[in-house]
Design a protein that fits this description.
13 strands, single chain, 4-stranded mixed sheet, 7-stranded mixed sheet, Arc Repressor Mutant, subunit A, globular, 333 residues
């Protein structure tokens, strides 16, 4: 918060004194909010405000921030200002659209409730030099969705269970280790270890996770005798209260897609329209969804990630429900 105080002094020409928020002021807040923010309070332009500093390695949608900060405001009766260490251009746009007070020290101060918007040259979030492989993301999601069973298997057996080669799994685990997302144990036979619960695994990996969708194609007919899982908006009704869309969305692993394409089994394939929109996935959606979906859909976490860049309030609300049901409340570990 010292950088934050210096930033306010630099751009506003004022010095503020931060005070801790007393326990009685936070007692009525839900546990997940108290665990997600560091709270302090101060006088800003003769107005009492609360600063909610988002803790490291936690990422929320703009809708989640809005709901949590509104709850803090309603309980304490003070304007609440979100303090973030960094922010992508898309996240910044969504916070501004929702009129959420926020400060990114050294980058931007946006306080619509105080009629202020001061912006310096935007500094986009720096990309990590190390990327998360699709197979490594697959391992993380499998661990969250299916529990610790994968940690009881040596890497060779794990590769067979997940449909990868031993070399492929070893490469993926090394990728995870370099990003400090897992460790390994054993000498002759190695085992993967996360040593964290699913909520921590999910939040720690947030900045590395990406959409599983490689590309989308359209077709009017589906290949015979080939089972496809529902995806995108077609899968949301099982995991959220959103109704199914008119467009039918289906998911297919990229290896299967190229094999079918080579054999000419995708009729009238194009990139613009068709009865079916087929998402070509970077990994096999069926393995993750087995035992999770009861209605032939892709798994909820990959679904969440596949809709990450969708600028639609209905979709964002649905994504919020997925996290609430399968990360915050879910006891599937």
């Amino acid at each position: 918060m010292e950088n934050f105080r210096e930033y306010l002094k630099e751009v506003l020409g004022i010095s503020i004194t931060l005070f801790p928020v007393n326990k009685p002021e936070t007692d009525r807040l839900p546990f997940y909010i108290k665990e997600s923010f560091g709270f302090s309070k101060a006088e800003l332009f003769n107005q009492s405000v609360i600063f909610a500093e988002s803790l490291p390695d936690l990422t929320f949608t703009s809708l989640q921030y809005e709901k949590m900060l509104d709850l803090v405001k309603n309980i304490n009766g003070k304007e609440v200002i979100l303090v973030l260490d960094q922010l992508s251009s898309l996240e910044r746009k969504r916070l501004i659209q929702r009129r959420i007070n926020f400060i990114v020290p050294g980058t931007q101060l946006f306080l619509p409730s105080l009629l202020m918007d001061l912006q310096e040259k935007y500094k986009p979030k720096q990309e990590k030099s190390e990327k998360l492989l699709p197979s490594a993301q697959f391992i993380i999601l499998y661990r969250i969705l299916h529990g610790e069973i994968m940690e009881t298997l040596p890497l060779k057996a794990l590769a067979e269970k997940l449909g990868y080669t031993p070399m492929g799994i070893s490469k993926s685990v090394e990728n995870l280790k370099k990003l400090n997302l897992c460790t390994t144990e054993g000498t002759k036979e190695k085992y993967i270890r996360f040593n964290k619960n699913k909520q921590t695994i999910w939040h720690t990996a947030q900045s590395f996770l990406s959409s599983p969708v490689l590309k989308k194609i359209f077709a009017d007919e589906l290949p015979a005798n080939y089972l496809l899982l529902k995806s995108n908006e077609s899968a949301l009704p099982e995991y959220t209260d959103m109704a199914e869309a008119g467009q039918v969305y289906l998911a297919m692993e990229k290896g299967d897609y190229y094999a079918l394409q080579k054999k000419g089994r995708l009729k009238n394939e194009n990139e613009s329209e068709g009865i079916y929109c087929i998402e070509v996935w970077k990994y096999d959606p069926a393995i993750l969804a087995t035992g999770i979906s009861k209605e032939g859909n892709v798994d909820p976490l990959s679904l969440f990630l596949s809709l990450k860049e969708t600028m639609d309030e209905r979709i964002e609300s649905a994504r919020e429900q997925i996290i609430e049901n399968y990360i915050v409340k879910w006891s599937g570990d």
